[in-house]
Structures are given as C-alpha cells and as structure tokens.
Write a structure and sequence with these properties.
Oligomer: heterodimer
Radius of gyration of chain A: 15 Å
Largest sheet of chain B: 9 strands, mixed
Helix content of chain B: 40-55%
Distance between the termini of chain B: 153 Å
Number of domains of chain B: 2
Number of strands of chain B: 25
Shape of chain B: rod-shaped
Number of domains of chain A: 1
Radius of gyration of chain B: 50 Å
CATH class of chain A: Alpha Beta
CATH topology of the largest domain in chain B: Rossmann fold
CATH architecture of the largest domain in chain B: 3-Layer(aba) Sandwich
Number of helices of chain A: 4
Strand content of chain B: 15-25%
Number of strands of chain A: 4
Largest interface: A-B, 37 and 24 residues
CATH topology of chain A: Glutaredoxin
CATH architecture of chain A: 3-Layer(aba) Sandwich
Number of helices of chain B: 18
Distance between the termini of chain A: 32 Å
Structural class of chain A: alpha+beta
Strand order of the largest sheet of chain B: 5-4-7-8-3-9-10-11-12
Strand content of chain A: 15-25%
Helix content of chain A: 25-40%
Chain lengths: 102, 596
C-alpha cells in the first residue's frame, strides 16, 4: 500500500497500451489486420502503445499458451481488463470500443 | 508425398472406433486417415461418439488424440466425459489434448478471420504428442462466426487439406436443427467427407430414442438404415441388426422347467436354448414359476440371470422364499445375478443394450425376464416388439435357455398375442389363468404350445405351498373344470367310490368262493357215494362168482360121490351164473372171500 502511494506522485500517469497481434504469416486476413491496427494505433495512441506481433506459424506453442483460437487475433494486455478481438480489424468502430477508446 | 511417408508399418484400411455395434455396422470402423462427418441435433450424441472414439483409440491402441472444442469449453466436455467409465481425467493428462476453441461472448469480432493459425497450432501439438486422431467438435459454431458462405467453404476446404497433409483419422461434428430437415448448409461438407453419419433423437411415447444412420461411406460396405443408440457406463452403444440368416442350433438336451410334474407335462422338460413364454393376468404366479425355473438352473450349477422390471430383486427373493424357492444362496455364490430395471425411465432399446451387457458380463446359461411385457411400456409398441424379437434371437444365438413372462389383459391367452407378439416366437407357451367357481379362485396351468415335443393337453391346477409350486389333476364334470374345494370334493367322492367298489368286489369274491367251496364239497360227497356204489357193485359181483364156484364144486362133489358120468362142464358156470340171483348162499360166499 505504502509503496503504491509513494509511486503515484513521482510523475504524471502515462497510459501505455500493451497490444499483442497474432497472425498467420502473410495470409490476407493477417496482412489486413496489421494494416488496420497500424492505422488505429497511429490515430488513437500516438506513440503511447507497445505492439507485439506474433506469427503463429512460427511460434505455435506461444499461441497455444496464450489461448489463441483463430487468426488474426488481437489481445489488449493492458490497461486491464484484458480484451480480445478476432478478425482482420476492418470494423474500426468495434475495435475502438473493445480497446476502450470510443 | 509418398516419399515422406514412412514405408514401414502399413496402416490398416480401417480403424475401429471401439463403439459397440458401430464397428459391425461400418464393417470395421472409420477409414484410416480420412474424415468422417457426424451430423445431428442437439443432444444426439455427437460429442460422446467422437470423444469415445478418441478414448478407445488412446486406451486400446495407445494412439494419442486431439479434441478441438468449438461449442463447449474443454472443462465442460471433460466433466461430461467423466460420467463414463473411460478414465478420462487421466487420459486428458497424457494421451488426449483438448484445445479450447470456444470463443467466449466477451471476444469481440471485427472483420473476417481464418483457421490458418489454429491449424498451425494443432500441427505443433500433433507433432508434440504424436496424435493419430483429431476431432473438430461443433464446427457449425465456428462456421456461424464466419458469417459468410464463401468463407465457410474456404475454411472447410482448409481443414480438409490440412487433414490430408497430416494423415490423421478425423471426425468433424456439426449440429443440424431438426432430424428431418436436410442439412442444406453442409451439403458441400457431406460431399467432401468420406463418411457421413447422422445421429438423431426423437420422442416416442414420451421416451427419448436415439438413432444412428450411416448415410454415406465412400468405398466401403455399411449397413444402411436407422439403428438404435443407447448410452451405458461405457458410453454409446449401437444396436446393430441381427444377421439375416438364422444359425441357431437345436439342442435335444432337456432341462427342467422348474419341477417334475411340469416337466412331465412338457414331455420331459424344456429344450436347452429354447424360449418359453408364460402368460397370465396379474397374480397367476408367473414370477413363482420363473423363480422355480431359476432355482432349478442354479441347483444344476448353471449361471443364471434374473431380470425383473418394475419390481426390485429384494422383494422378489422374499416373496419367492414364502413358496419354498430360496434364491439367496445362489445370489451369494454369484451363480445367480438379479437385475431390476425401471421400464419408463429408458427406452426399450436401452433396455436391450443393458440386457446385452448383462449377458456379456454374467454369461448365463439360463435367463428369466419378468415381465417381458414391461418393455411395451418403454416407448412405442413397435420398438418394444422389435426389441423383444431381437432379444429372443440374441439369446438363441447364445444358446441361453430363457423363460419370459408376459402379463395378459384377460384370461384368454389370445389377448397376449396382440401385445408384443412374442408368443409366435417362443418355443413353449404356458398360460396361467384363474378359474373362479363356488366362491373360489384357483390357478390353472395350460400348455398352449411346445415346439418339437409331446406335451400334455390337459389343464392342471397350480397349487402353491411352502414346498413350492405343484400341479394337481383337475376334473372335468359336465364340461366344466373342477378345482380347489370342488376338486377336493370330487377327489373324495372318487375315493369313496373306489372304496365301495373294492368292498363290493371283496364281497362278491367271498360269495363266489363260498359257492365254489360248497360245490366242491358236493362234488367230493358225490364222488364218495360213487366210489361206495362201485365198491358195492364189485363186491356183489364177487359174491356171485363165489356162489357159482361153490355150487359147481358142490355139484362136482355130489357127482363124484354119486359116481355120475362126466357131463359138459363148460356149460355149468353159465348155468350157474344164470341162477346167481339166488341170494341164499350170499352170506357164506362173503365169509369165504373175507377169509381168503
């Protein structure tokens, strides 16, 4: 308790979105998802986000461990709550809603 | 492709599913490295079929498998599967992998997706555990999410290609709404798959009946038609039809139907492996006769199965012990197995499956089903009839001697025939009825038929006592059967008559004996007088001779004294004889004869 309290006044709270995008190599939906996500991030997060792109074809064990079902899949790890979005992210409105932006 | 395959270990053409009945229907199971589509309504057993196949492959042949769950969560499936005797929790740790492919409602969908990533994960898992089997359970859920018929088809083709490249035995399940509606959506899927199985469930008279049908099996024989499905502790079981050819062997060995008098009525007992039907209205001692049959079998040392419906084994043994039938020691020794089923809870097909598994477990030589007519309560009558027929055939195949009872609605045995129609199949048909007369209700036993053997045509009275059931002769008087007290009276009357006849006879004999003795006595006395008379006659003749002799001697003496010339002496005796009637010398002659 005391540690957290001590941390807060140290500086202004900077919300950094931590995102993970699971793709399947250069499959059309995966490529589309990368492009769509890049556009959304650029517009709404500026530089305040971290994105990790995981190619399930290269690291299937990681995807299994993370509970991924289909590709492409986007997971917002932070800020909590953890959110999952599946699809090529072409429906921007639902993506923004899921990420808690709009 | 061919080069990458290991040349050794040729894969068998078909892989057994281990589901009882299905491997017979499909002529060996599912084709190796091919995909089977399993379609059916909710709760028709798709998940059980596929999971059971995986479990059996893992347990029997040590083949690991992957289960991809689209519809339910993996934990739900594991919990449901734990209800069967599969040892699923242990298998899930080592041989089976469950992929949670259920998209929770919290997952947001934005645009299209595909299965490339999932298949990559599955390939990794397959290589990790060496899986030979894979199940995609509830693919319809996934396809619905795709929201696009073209995408649906694309993903199905993707799965098919993936399966072809990965050489796995695969089962894909899909839900269809309503058993009868053609699965239009999956038309292309059915076309693609090598084997298509439909599972259905419908209600028949308030009992849920499960069905399985193989609608397509590329390059393989299969038994067409709908087959009953039931669920037991080992999972699903398919009621495969009995072979069309009847190959029962007819035994000439006779075994006791329960007690000696009944055996005599049956011409020496029941044939081994035959089926006997006992019909009668409630309370006519059908169960007692069945119990006696079971006891006799146990006393011969034969394994026996006693199946009762809607009455517990405990009350039955108690009730039977009151009429001198003691089944408890046989239950204790394990020779006798009793099973009590509740008819309404499950369909007739399920009862059949249960009985089949009991037959397998207990391997009885004799069996009782009491009452078989209860099957008619479990679902529709047509099903019950089919089940009863199949049951009889199965037991014939196994050579089990079976005694079944059936409740008939009336005292007329023909009413039974309209119910399950088993009477035509049974080899021996015994009917029990009540005969009510003079304020008494008595039980009558008739043998309506007994194939291949002489049997009594007469009605007998069935009497229950502490010593067990017994049969008594009945009397027919004026065209009516006499039983109970009337029979007793008639018996007493007959006894008295017999006694009287014996007495009469004795009297007559005595009289005749006396008459005979009398006659004999008279004959003796007459004989005596005859002899006396003969003797008298003889004596008289001798006197005469003596008299003649002495007179001729005296004549000669006289002649000698008087010096008479010798005259013809030969004529003298005849002259003398002629004078023999003169009795003056009789006494002297007798005296001479006596002196000699």
């Amino acid at each position: 308790m005391s540690r957290r309290k001590a941390k807060r006044p140290a500086g202004p709270v900077v919300t950094v979105a931590v995102l993970r995008l699971y793709i399947a190599d250069s499959a059309p939906n995966s490529a589309l998802a990368i492009a769509n996500l890049a556009a959304i991030c650029k517009e709404h997060f500026g530089d305040k986000f971290e994105l990790e792109i995981i190619d399930v074809l290269e690291d299937p064990q990681r995807a299994l461990a993370d509970g991924i079902i289909v590709t492409p899949s986007l997971t917002k790890v932070s800020p909590s709550p953890l959110t999952r979005i599946v699809g090529n992210l072409s429906d921007t409105k639902s993506v923004l809603h899921a990420l808690g932006i709009a | 492709m061919r080069a990458t395959k290991p040349p050794a270990r040729p894969t068998p053409a078909k892989m057994a599913t281990g589901i009882l009945g299905f491997d017979e229907l499909s002529n060996g199971g599912l084709k190796s490295n091919r995909t089977t589509l399993l379609m059916g309504g909710p709760g028709s057993g798709k998940t059980v079929f596929s999971l059971q196949t995986l479990v059996n492959a893992a347990r029997e042949r040590n083949e690991p498998g992957i289960f991809v769950a689209f519809e339910e969560t993996a934990s739900q499936i594991l919990a449901d599967g734990a209800g069967f005797d599969w040892g699923l929790p242990a298998l899930a740790k080592s041989k089976l992998f469950f992929l949670e492919a259920h998209l929770s409602p919290e997952v947001v969908q934005s645009g299209e997706f595909d299965l490339r990533g999932m298949l990559a994960m599955l390939k990794a898992k397959k290589e990790e555990i060496g899986a030979r089997w894979i199940v995609f359970d509830g693919i319809d859920v996934l396809l619905t999410l795709l929201q696009n018929p073209i995408a649906e088809m694309q993903e199905i083709y993707r799965i098919r290609d993936w399966l072809a490249n990965n050489a796995m035995n695969a089962i894909v399940t899909a839900k269809i709404e309503g058993e009868m509606s053609p699965a239009v959506n999956y038309g292309f899927m059915q076309f693609m798959m090598d084997c298509v199985i439909r599972l259905g469930r419908r209600l028949d008279h308030g009992v849920s009946l499960h069905r399985l049908q193989i609608t397509k099996y590329r390059g393989s024989d299969f038994v067409a038609g709908e087959h009953p499905v039931s669920f037991g502790p080992l999972g699903m079981e398919i009621g495969a039809p009995e072979p069309p050819e009847i190959k029962h062997t007819a035994s000439t060995e006779r075994i006791s139907a329960g007690f000696e008098r009944l055996d005599r009525m049956l011409g020496g007992g029941l044939f081994r492996g035959s089926s006997t039907l006992i019909t009668g209205v409630p309370g006519t001692s059908k169960t007692t006769l069945a119990g006696k049959f079971a006891e006799a079998a146990c006393l011969r040392g034969e394994r026996t199965l006693f199946v009762s419906f809607d009455e517990g084994a405990d009350p039955i043994t108690r009730n039977l012990s009151s009429v001198g039938i003691d089944l408890k020691p046989h239950l204790k020794s394990g020779l006798l197995r009793m099973y009590s089923g509740r008819t309404e809870s499950i369909g007739a097909e399920d009862h059949l499956v249960k009985l089949k598994s009991l037959l397998r477990e207990h391997r009885p030589r004799c069996m009782v089903i009491d009452p078989l007519s209860a099957l008619a309560k479990a679902g529709g009558l047509s099903t019950a009839r089919a089940v009863a027929n199949r049951l009889i055939y199965i037991m014939k195949d196994e050579g089990v001697t079976v005694l079944m009872t059936a409740i008939s609605e009336g005292d007329d045995p023909q009413t039974e025939a309209t119910e399950l129609q088993i009477s035509t199949l049974a080899d021996t048909w015994i009917h029990l009825s009540y005969v009510v007369r003079s304020g008494e209700r008595n039980r009558a036993l008739t043998i309506i038929k007994s194939r291949g053997t002489w049997h009594s045509n007469q009605v007998r009275e069935l009497i229950l006592s502490k010593a067990g059931p017994m049969l008594a002769d009945v009397y027919t008087a004026g065209g009516e059967v006499l039983m109970g007290t009337l029979r007793w009276e008639k018996e007493e009357e007959d006894k008295a008559k017999t006694m009287q006849r014996r007495l009469d006879f004795d009297n007559k004999r005595s009289a005749l004996e006396l008459a005979e003795a009398d006659t004999h006595a008279r004959v003796t006395s007459l004989q005596l007088s005859l002899e006396r008379q003969r003797a008298e006659l003889a004596r008289y003749s001798k006197d005469n001779d003596a008299r003649i002799t002495s007179s001729s001697e005296r004549e000669q003496e006289l002649g000698r004294i008087r010096n008479a010339d010798p005259t013809g002496r030969a004529s003298t005796p005849s002259r003398g004889k002629r004078n023999g009637s003169n009795g003056s010398n009789k006494g002297r002659a007798a005296g001479q004869r006596n002196a000699r």
